[in-house]
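Feature request disguised as a bug report, sorry. It would help if multi-protein outputs had a clear separator. Right now it looks like this:
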Amino acid sequence: MEQPKREKPYQKPTGPRRGLVLVYTGEGKGKTTAALGLVLRAVGRGYRARVFQFMKHERAAFGEHRALEQLGVEIEGLGDGFSWKSKDLEKSAALAYQGWQKARAALFSDYFLVVWDEISYPLRYGWIPLEEVLEALRQKPQGVHVVLTGRGMPQEILELADTVSEVRKLKHAFDAGIPAQRGIEH
């Protein structure tokens, strides 16, 4: 008996390939992890990637920093830690804006993938002008992919992005009084 012909579950896109703007946002855990997964995928294919973390300080040495350095991926903390612990918010704002200058420049360099991790926070605090970020994304080179992460990503960025994923929290160990775990959260 002849099998019935199956239809494809999707139509293959016919548009040109180009660099994408990808956003991971939401209240759940895993936004940075998803972005770093793309870094691993790109590096595994022989492409260059660069990671900027707006809330981590320049001396941060979490697990992801150690692993990416072993792979030859540049990862840079641009801030002074968690903003809610800052003793000098003007300094925090200045660090974020200086870091933004580096992160924007990398977009116009020779990287295949650039990650702006936790950029939503300095945007929400007004430390980085939203219009500057939008303009950089509009002007980015055709073949460069950029990933933006963080809770509460501004609507204008969500609208400009090619792909937006929302990470939703259903349950988190922290809420049950379990502290952050080395190798899981840092």
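(second protein starts here, but nothing in the output says so)
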Amino acid sequence: MSVLALDTAQSESQMCAEFAELLGLPEPVDEAVLRAALSSDSYARSLLASRRTPQMLQMLLMSPPRQVRARAEHTTTELFQRGSRSLVNWARSGFSTTDPLAREQRSEACRQCPHRQAPGASLLQATRSELGICGLCGCPLSRKVSMLSESCPGEMPDTPGVNRWGQVITVSHPSN
């Protein structure tokens, strides 16, 4: 093991121990908890707020938000174009929104998606939602799941041709 790798491992385990101490825990927190707290302000705040409620704290420690991939960068121009198309399509649908059951099903699919990311720094990705941002398209998921005209850009791993929301994926070809 290299010296740098050893230092990184020691500092991460030290940070896990220090974070546990801050939370009033006798043992270091899991590395996944530390990483999730560092990437999600709301998760970190929830942990700190739950210090005096052991059952809630344990529940939060057992299920940290998943942060699988590094943030994909979407340019402001790309986000603006996607947002504009989305708004036009939504207007064409009569500003139709999903019913509560469909919205919750879409939200749950997004929560389980490995492409889901914490909210971006871009103003066009601004969201206060725990759902965060779609790493594939850069859209705020709380808005995306609510708009009937939207679809998920991610394909189901075991079902080619179907997106994570259970919709058949159609490919639109630009007109010549």
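Even a blank line would do. Unrelated, but nice: Strands lie at 116-117, 133-134, 155-156, 159-163.
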